[in-house]
Amino acid sequence: MTTRDWGSIYKELGATPVVNATGSVTFLGGSTPNAEVKAAMDAADSAFIPLIHLEQVAGDRIAEMLGVPAAYITSGAGSALTLSTAAFMAGTDEDKIQQLPNTTGMPNEILIQKRQRYWYDRCLEFAGATLVDVGDDDGTTADDLRAAISDRTAAVHWVAYEQNPVDPDVLTLEETIEITHAAGKPVSVDAAGQIFPLENFGKYVKMGADFQCIAAKYMGAPHSTGIALGTKEVIEAISRHSFVGYETHRIRGIGRPHKIDRQEIMGVVAAVERWMTLNHEDRMESAEAQSQEILTPLQDIPGVTAWLNPNIMGHQPYGVHVKLDPDVVGFTIDDLIQKLRDGDPSIWTRSALDGQARLDIHVFGLNDGEAELVGNAIAAVIKG
Questions:
Q1: SS3 37
Q2: Helix 370-383 to helix 280-295 angle, to the nearest 10 degrees?
Q3: What is the CATH architecture of 8-30+279-383?
Q4: Which helix H or strand E contains 327, and what residues bound it?
Q5: Could you tell me the sign of the dihedral formed by the alpha carbons of 350, 355, 360, 364, in that order?
Q6: Closest CA to 217 of 61, 356, 28, 12
């Protein structure tokens, strides 16, 4: 453990702290603000400031750093998705903003390719929009998208996972933008984790998308923060729908619960500034070294196959994949996950999201010394 009082603040409440070998996941708390972010947040305590002004200047700073038209800091990437959907439906019309989530008289359909449906597309519905599948499980054609766009269409949504293999049966973003803009409709992109390589950070708006979101937690900002990037028109509309619009412009929009404080806003600015100047080679070397510490105790154990995840794109570089032969070790991957959680300390991992019988470990949430602990714990469980 990194300190003798590891998790003591939780233990005092009767809660059990855990070692996070899963990654930057919401159910374990998402992120730990880095030193630069904590310093900026502490400095923000020194004075109060009108948040409508702070959001504007902070957004301007981020937009300048990323080379995009405009930016807005939100309470997470999911909040950015919800607020952008509201913006696509109601724009800056105050009566319509206050009418949401009742979308009568507005375009209220968000089109999404069937093969791109994902866990977080629910965020697009919270403002009152309806998700409409385009194409089917076999794919989407250009004609499918053209036929689906109508007067009811508020936007077309696209999901960016640069670290995954390209799906040849999904329309590319370039194709999606061309078809959608030709029909006079905007394009939305969920790029929550697309922050590395740096040219990917904001590139979807530069390609012509009207909006994209980023989860700022991946850069060491507070878990509850995100960034909306987009055209000046879309970002202005988002500000009107936000909690700032509710309190400053006195527009009773759906964004009132999406509150963010001045400390978090300054933390996000500091996180982006740090990320854009960080030595990413050192960052990745550290992640690879941690991954190797997990791998070392797992070599040459009968029934165990463990290897390095070579991915360096996005927000979680490297990591470890583990497969078991149940006939040799006597239990399954799901059993291993539970045994690690039941250990002392409790180590949280999870099975592969693609449905494979595989353990996927990420080092994003590991403190100093915890990578070796995780590797040794897995080895001890398997060896009995």
A1: helix
A2: 20
A3: Alpha-Beta Complex (3.90)
A4: helix 326-329
A5: negative
A6: 28
Mean pLDDT of the chain: 96
Q: What is the pLDDT of residue 355?
A: 84
- 31-61 pLDDT, tens digit per residue, is 999 999 999 999 999 999 999 999 999 999 9
Q: Give pLDDT tens digits for 311-358.
A: 999 999 999 999 999 999 999 999 999 999 999 999 999 998 888 999
Q: Residue 120: pLDDT above 50?
A: yes
CATH class of 35-277: alpha beta
Q: Across-strand partners of 134?
A: 113
Q: Which residues are within 8 A (CB) of 319 and not within 5 positions of it... i.e. 6 or more apart?
A: 23, 287, 291, 308, 309, 311, 360, 361, 362, 363
CA distance 116 to 139: 9
Q: Dihedral of the CA atoms 52, 55, 61, 62 (nearest 10)?
A: -150
Q: Give the DSSP H or E segment for 79.
A: helix 77-90
Checking DSSP bridges between strand 226-230 and strand 304-308, what pairing results, if any? unpaired
Residue 189 Cα distances to 112, 229, 377, angstroms = 10, 10, 40
Q: Where are the domains of the chain?
A: 8-30+279-383, 35-277
The residues near 236 (Cβ < 8 Å, ≥ 6 apart) are 70, 92
Give the helix/strand (H/E) hosting 20: strand 18-20
Stretch 354-382: mean pLDDT: 94
pLDDT, mean of residues 88-109: 98
How far from 340 is each of 21, 125, 172, 374, CA to CA, in Å? 10, 36, 40, 9
| 2 pLDDT more than 80 | no
pTM (two decimals): 0.95
- Both structure tokens of 98: 């206050």
